[in-house]
Amino acid sequence: xxxLSLKQPFAELVVSGRKTIELRKWTTQFRGEFLVHASQNxxxxxxxxxxxxxxxxxxxxxxxxxVDVKSYEDEDEFNRDSSHHLASREWxxxxxxxxxxxxxxPIYCKGSLKFWNYN
Length: 119
Known about the structure:
6 strands; Archaeosine Trna-guanine Transglycosylase, Chain: A, domain 4; alpha+beta
């Protein structure tokens, strides 16, 4: 199954359903269900901004479905979607539109870049 690694707290925000657009600097043709991996790297500033002290890292924590990818060429559209992506433009110009996110019991494993496979 495909897996996407995200820094905490963004992985947590996805599996809790608060973040429904994941920003990336690259696009993908992939559509469908994938596992959400919380990478070892943590965004400490974002942890404080979203009120988290500690979250699991280095493990798969849930799953979601990628239904579409949008390109943010228009600054106004990017700003209108801010409550869905919860991030700044530095994370990228492509918005992965997510649905049906849910939490799972952690599966500890090493992550990777882009979409990667977990059996």
